[in-house]
């Protein structure tokens, strides 16, 4: 899969992403591949298992920032939704949002792994 196919699959704002990375597809792709080593999601999972909403909010906020910088629009949106839900203390809604975040994160990782 090439980068443009991946951008469609992941709802990446391709033009914004390239602009952010100086117009270089190679640099952008390198940063997408680095996302595979990003540990924030694993830390978010650990916080979720502990039920530590303060830590969940922090890690979801960090993930939102990384996703935003990479123009990963879906991941950015769901992370933001989780952050806002926790900040508003609407904990009863977090399970469904977290499940969507898990699914989108796993899909994102799979697509990035398949970029050549």
**Radius of gyration, CA atoms, in whole angstroms:** 14 Å
The overall average pLDDT, rounded, is 96
Helix content: over 70%
Derived structural class:
mainly alpha
Mind telling me the CATH class? Mainly Alpha
Report the CATH superfamily: HPT domain
Principal-axis shape: elongated
**Topology as H/E string?**
HHHHHHH
Assembly state: single chain
Residue windows where pLDDT falls under 50 for at least 5 positions: none
Spatial separation of the terminal alpha carbons: 6 Å
What is the count of structural domains?
1
Measured by DSSP, the beta-strand proportion falls in under 5%
Quickly give the CATH architecture: Up-down Bundle
Largest sheet data: none
Q: Looking at CATH, which topology would you report?
A: Four Helix Bundle (Hemerythrin (Met), subunit A)
Tell me how many strands there are.
0
By DSSP (H or I, 4+ residues per run), the number of helices equals 7
Descriptive notes:
- This protein is an all-alpha fold and 116 residues long.
- It has one domain: Four Helix Bundle (Hemerythrin (Met), subunit A) (Up-down Bundle).
- Helix content is 76%, strand content 0%.
- The protein is built from seven helices and no strands.
- α4 runs antiparallel to α5 and α5 runs antiparallel to α6.
- The longest helix is centred in the C-terminal third of the chain and has 20 residues.
- It is elongated, with a radius of gyration of 14 Å.
- The N and C termini lie close together (6 Å).
- The model has no long low-confidence stretch (mean pLDDT 96).
């Amino acid at each position: 899969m090439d980068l443009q196919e991946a951008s469609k699959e992941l709802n990446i704002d391709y033009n914004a992403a390239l602009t952010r990375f100086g117009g270089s597809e190679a640099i952008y792709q390198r940063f997408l591949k680095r996302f595979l080593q990003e540990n924030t999601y694993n830390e978010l999972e650990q916080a979720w298992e502990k039920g530590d909403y303060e830590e969940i909010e922090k890690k979801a906020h960090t993930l939102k920032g990384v996703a935003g910088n990479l123009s990963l629009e879906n991941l950015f949106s769901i992370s933001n939704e989780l952050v806002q839900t926790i900040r508003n203390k609407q904990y009863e809604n977090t399970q469904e949002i977290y499940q969507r975040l898990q699914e989108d994160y796993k899909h994102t990782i799979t697509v990035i792994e398949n970029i050549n």
